[in-house]
Design brief:
InterPro entries: GGDEF_dom (IPR000160), GH (IPR017853), GH_1_N_CS (IPR033132), Glyco_hydro_1 (IPR001360), Glyco_hydro_1_AS (IPR018120). One of its GO terms (biological process) is carbohydrate catabolic process. It holds the Pfam family Glyco_hydro_1. It comes from Lentibacillus populi. Keywords: Glycosidase, Hydrolase. With about 475 residues, this protein is α/β, with parallel strands linked by helices. The protein has one domain: TIM Barrel (Alpha-Beta Barrel), CATH 3.20.20.80. The chain contains 15 helices and twelve strands. An eight-stranded parallel beta barrel has the order 1-2-3-4-5-7-9-10, surrounded by five helices. A two-stranded parallel ribbon has the order 6-8. Helix 14 links the parallel strand 9 (about 365-370) and strand 10 (about 410-415). It starts with 14 loop residues before the first strand and ends in a 6-residue tail after the last helix.
Length: about 475
């Protein structure tokens, strides 16, 4: 048998582009028949809280992508994008979720957006549910732990996939589906109030309903548009034990499995054996209907996508000198790695490890669909924005992807997070900027909204032009 040639470059036809979420970019939150979603009652501030009486909601105005998408897509084309990932605001199509007929104005908006992208030579990747659910459904039925959500979701899926057949090549069923089990993001991912009683039970029941919904959506999409591909999307953080103490290694492995659970079900088609012990020890009783396991087994995803911003360090205990991360969600800070302005570690090598771990586990094509640096950008007196720190971050991670490709990983594409500055989901801030395109708005929504190319824009344009060879 001849020696197989290893690949040292990105494959021909590699997808390069950027990703946003509709609710963080569009604004126009009650225009053309749209009604509020779960994203629209998040007030400003770090995980700002769910309030109906706040003085300011960043998503209501956002960056007005709703009206300005043509100029933004033109900029993406100028940067050589051949793929763009966004989502569809559910409440633009079914304002309360319970309507029999969809809202034509909402359907027409996305049709125009996708056709405009096509005109610019850009392939569409659409997240069906990206951190928003009709608020009216949550108010009436609770969250995704109520099985009624399956039918509401599948009605939405059938409508949009039928309408956009031939306009959308890649569909993702849920954004970062594993966050249905993470506090406080369970609100974003599954409409579960993080202050609920019996929270663990509610979160994992919601996750089960999303697994069934995802499998039925996968079946439906394949039937309606045989040329479309359906993927799962998980949040992934490479996990390291804080020390080589056995307890820390065990804690790291347990943490990994909590993350893997969600991709295991969607990619392999069954609940992994390890999760049952976790359920038992945490008094979680997931209710399954007859046929659920068969549905999950028969309709697995075609590919796997994930977000990667940083790695995590896990310890069996949090004793000093370990430093907790600023947001206290992700365990401990790695003392060997630099940090962003928001205290997130910068770890490109962790991305190479992530790609290898996921490909070894599933042998499915992979996409990195979120990766980027949230930073405070300064506009110089001459109007330039010299974001060399962002260039360094992206270059390091693209280099890590190239190494993973050389390792044999089947990597199909890369969509950096927030190619244009958008409202941060976690903090509600505009000042936590990810883009290669600056948007002149501050944390209170003040400013011209003008788009300005940063130094990283031209750099990323050249990276894509060279298919990742020139960094």
């Amino acid at each position: 048998m001849g020696k197989k040639q290893t690949r040292s470059q990105f494959p021909k036809g590699f997808y390069w582009g950027g990703a946003i979420a509709a609710n963080q970019a569009e604004g126009a939150y009650l225009e053309d028949g749209k009604q509020p979603s779960t994203a629209d009652i998040k007030s400003r501030g770090f995980f700002g809280g769910l309030r109906r009486d706040a003085d300011y909601y960043p998503t209501h105005k956002a960056i007005d992508f709703y009206h300005r998408y043509k100029e933004d897509l033109k900029l993406f084309q100028e940067a050589n994008f051949n793929i763009f990932r966004t989502s569809i605001n559910w409440t633009r199509i079914y304002p309360t979720g319970e309507e029999d007929n969809p809202n034509e104005a909402g359907l027409k908006y996305y049709e125009d957006l996708f056709k405009e992208a096509q005109k610019n030579g850009i392939t569409m990747m659409i997240t069906i549910s990206h951190y928003e659910t009709p608020l009216a459904l949550i108010d009436k039925y609770g969250g995704w732990d109520n099985r009624k959500f399956l039918n509401f979701y599948l009605k939405f899926v059938k409508t949009i996939v039928t309408r956009y057949k031939g306009l959308v090549k890649f569909w993702l069923t849920f954004n970062e589906i594993g966050n249905a089990s993470v506090v406080p993001i369970c609100w974003d991912a599954a409409g579960i109030d993080p202050n609920s009683d019996n929270l663990q039970q509610r979160m994992y029941q919601a996750a089960h309903h999303q697994f069934v919904a995802s499998s039925l959506a996968t079946k439906m999409i394949h039937e309606i548009d045989p040329n479309a591909k359906v993927g799962a999307m998980i949040a992934y953080k490479t996990v390291y034990p804080y020390t080589c103490k056995v307890e820390d290694v065990k804690a790291a492995e347990a943490s990994k499995r909590k993350e893997y659970f969600f991709s295991d079900v969607q990619a392999r088609g069954y609940y992994p054996s390890y999760i049952w012990r976790y359920f038992e020890e945490n008094n979680i009783h997931v209710k399954m209907e007859t046929g659920d396991e068969e549905i999950i087994r028969q309709h697995t995803v075609d590919f796997l996508t994930f977000s990667y911003y940083r790695s995590r360090v896990v310890s069996a205990d949090y004793e000093e000198p370990a430093e907790k991360t600023s947001d206290s969600l992700e365990g401990l800070v790695n003392p060997h790695l630099p940090k962003t302005d928001w205290g997130w570690t910068i770890d490109p090598d962790g991305l190479r490890l992530a790609l290898n771990e996921l490909y070894d586990r599933y042998q499915l094509p992979l996409f990195v669909v979120e990766n980027g640096l949230g930073a405070k950008d300064k506009v110089e007196e001459d109007g330039l924005i010299n974001d060399d720190y962002r260039i360094d971050y992206l270059a390091g991670h693209i280099k890590a992807m190239r190494e993973a490709v050389a390792d044999g990983v089947d990597l199909k594409g890369y969509t950096m997070w927030g190619p244009i500055d958008i409202v941060s989901n976690g903090t509600g801030q505009m000042s936590k900027r990810y883009g290669i395109i600056y948007v002149d708005l501050d944390d209170n929504g003040n400013g011209t909204g003008d788009r300005v190319k940063k130094k990283s824009f031209e750099w990323y344009r050249r990276v894509i032009e060279s298919n990742g060879d020139i960094l």
